[in-house]
Amino acid sequence: MDSFKTLQERKETIKLFMEYGVPGEFAEQAAALLDKFETDIIGLNLFHNFYSCLPEGTEDAIQKLLLLARKQGVFLLCASSFSGINYLYLVNNEGAVLLGTLTEGLPDRELLDFFGFKDNESFLALGKDLSCLEEYEISPVDRSLCPACQAGVGEYHILGCPVEVCPWCSGQLTRCNCRFTRLDVENIDLESQIEKLQERLDAAGRIPYAKEHSPGYLSDDVSDDNSEE
Ligand SMILES: [Zn+2]
Ligand SMILES: [Zn+2]
Questions:
Q1: Hey, which of 27, 50, 76, 227 has its CA 20 to 30 A from 15?
Q2: From the CA of 131, how far away is ligand 1's center (Å)?
Q3: Could you tell me the pTM of the whole model?
Q4: Chain-centre distance of CA 215, in angstroms?
Q5: How far apart are alpha carbons 38 and 138 in whole angstroms?
């Protein structure tokens, strides 16, 4: 397991890497893309891999993320960089792996089978015209996974996931005040505090992801929210 505790912490770490690797002229756009995916573990895992692995002296930044395939919480994504390279990533809620570039295709037979591609030829055909590919968005195709941290139904969220329901007040755990009142603190940023919070949460009984937790979070258009939330 990696050492990150919360989505916010992951984002801060990525921002540090970005200070060194992102060319000034693209800094604003790259930061905006990071902001867009700040509550999305898939996007954050990819960014973390990309920006932490940039070879020293190389400057580049991700311009956009394209969705090639997704299945059971595993995403095949293309990260198009400003220098024109299309990186191919395999991502789930635990991490991201760089597979190569889009022009090399997906030589791994197991991955081709998993995502339902006949062969590398048919995969390469998909990547020929990037304008035909949909951009990767946070919105899930179905609700069997938490839209933010990709926990499955019945699984616990990654701590810091904005979808997690507070076991004390049934509100949104990242928004309500329970985490502060329970620890009797005003801020939670120390590792020890986060650990203590996790203990308290476990003792109270954390609420695992359920499909009905998803819609309220997803509705960008709050006025039109007809969910039972
Ligand atoms: Zn979640
Ligand atoms: Zn609460």
A1: 76
A2: 30
A3: 0.67
A4: 18
A5: 10
